[in-house]
Amino acid sequence: MLSKADQPPASPPDLRARIETANGSMFQSTVEQFLTSPTSDRYRGKVQLIFTSPPFPLNRKKAYGNSSGSEYLEWLSGLAPRLSEMLTPDGSIVIEIGNAWEPGIPSMSTLSIEALLAFKQIGDLNLCQQFVWQNPARLPSPIQWVNIKRVRVKDTFTHIWWMAPNVHPYANNANVLQEYSDSMKELLRTRRYNYGRRPSEHVIGTTSFLTDNGGSIPGSVLTFSNTRSHDVYRRYCLSRNLSMHPARMPPELAAWFIRFLTREGDLVFDPFAGSCTTGEQAERLGRRWIGTEPNPDYVQGARGRFLKELGLPEPPKSPRSIAPVR
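RESULT FIELD:
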């Protein structure tokens, strides 16, 4: 009889979805458990977009779990090869990471950028484009240097890197056009434009700016406020005394990249699903989706994003009928 040390390791269990809709599934699992389980095999090579916001490399430990320093860099970059295997030939990975500060001094850490760079290199990925998400409503931070010492201004942006194994991943900016400005609308109406040579020596052609394409092409700085405090997800969690995820992204951010980098019916994967904002937006936009999240409260709370799909009642709107959150 083999000793316990000589016995082969048990094969990882097949995971069961905790939330299932017609288009998607959420698994209560770490990303590592999911990627080594038989469950992941059915999705391998079929994911069009991995869109996620992993735990930030903060100095202070958060409830949702986060590492720091070289431990964080090695952990995140080590996931790159396995996540890349989940993608279709023209699929993309989009990662959003916030800033970190050096402990005890008013200096920013470069760990966020180092982690993204290591993820790109170890995953053998191409950096398609770098984005910035600006949240103008973000509270002043770091408090010690912004509010108390007043030697820094508040930090209001995070890094977003769009990466892909293929230099030509699927993308279509016609799906994320912005509404024209009033001046552009007037220009299209009057068709009066000052053509000719500019001080830069660039010559403006006669048709360059007078075609109505349905909107203007957006830039790489995306501005979305994150101020929702009475949405259905929050009311659902409060009504069931569930801990809410403390770092929820605005749904507009997830929706923007889903529209930009996927087609209807494509599969979207969020390996750090949290409250399942990505899955909710994929569902609304007619995409298929999967998500993984190890915290049972966050998984249970995520059901509040799919009330109609799960046949659940609307949570109460009166604060008096809502239980306090833990």
